[in-house]
Amino acid sequence: MGRGRVQLKRIENKISRQVTFSKRRTGLLKKAHQISVLCDVEVALIVFSTKGKLYEYSSESSMERILERYERYSYAEKQLGTIDAESQGSWSHEYPKLVARIEVLQRSMRHISGEELDPLSLRELQNLEQQLDTALKRVRTRKNQLMNETISEFQKKEKALQEQNNLLAKKLKQNDKINADQRTQRQQQQQDHGQNSSALMLAPPQQPPASLPVACLNIGQRLEGGCGVVEDVGHQTQRTSHIVVPPWMLPNLNT
């Protein structure tokens, strides 16, 4: 079985009480040192024995610094508590005034909405009517202002859209003109190409010019019947040579 829970009460035996104090005091100082090192906090421990002997521990160099800080903190807490008490006192006086003010405003709102008009006198009703007329004028003025601002904004948008539409129309005309020029250029090129093809197809074959009566020369070749037909010994093909002899060579040929 586990150890039972010890009930905390004063130790009656004086010797046992002194021994327990010595042991617990040592453990308490050790724990204070550990928490100051592990958690990096400022710790101040003060213990007075039953005989009035002082035992202390401080994580700083001096106990006075920690005590001064404690005193400043305690003074600030006291001042804040005093301010809170004064504020609570003033709020207790202001609360009934605020409640009455809220009731008046709520009743006025009901009157403006047309409710609970029976308790009002003629003068109060006239004042209420005047307030409603003034409020209505303000509402109409604000409404007209908003309408004018909306109309102006729509007009600006319409102008911007019109300018954009004109710009797009201009670009469209330019594109149409460019496309038309390109089509015309292609058609012209096609027409020129067709005319050139027709001219080549319809052109008559070139014939050699009619030759005048000529004399045939036999230079390393064999002439047949005085005609201009020449047979080449080293080739299979035949070709016709027309040699025009100048007049000054005719007497030599006759000889």
From TrEMBL:
Q: Where in the cell is it found?
A: Nucleus
| Matches recorded under InterPro entries | MADS-box/MEF2_TF, MEF2-like_N, TF_Kbox, TF_MADSbox, TF_MADSbox_sf
- Top-rank taxon, per record: Eukaryota
On whether Membrane is a keyword of this UniProt record, the answer is no
The segment(s) forming the MADS-box domain are 1-61
| PANTHER family on file | SERUM RESPONSE FACTOR HOMOLOG (PTHR48019)
Which region ranges are annotated with the description Disordered? 179-209
What's a Pfam family this protein contains?
A: K-box
Q: Which GO terms describe its biological process?
A: positive regulation of transcription by RNA polymerase II
Gene Ontology terms for molecular function? DNA-binding transcription factor activity; protein dimerization activity; RNA polymerase II transcription regulatory region sequence-specific DNA binding
| Sequence ranges assigned to domain K-box in this UniProt record | 88-178
- Choose one Gene Ontology CC annotation of this protein and give it: nucleus
Q: What is its main location?
A: nucleus
Which terms are listed as keywords in the entry?
A: DNA-binding, Nucleus, Transcription, Transcription regulation
Q: What is this protein called?
A: AP1/FUL-like protein
- The gene name reads FUL1
Taxonomic placement: Eukaryota, Viridiplantae, Streptophyta, Embryophyta, Tracheophyta
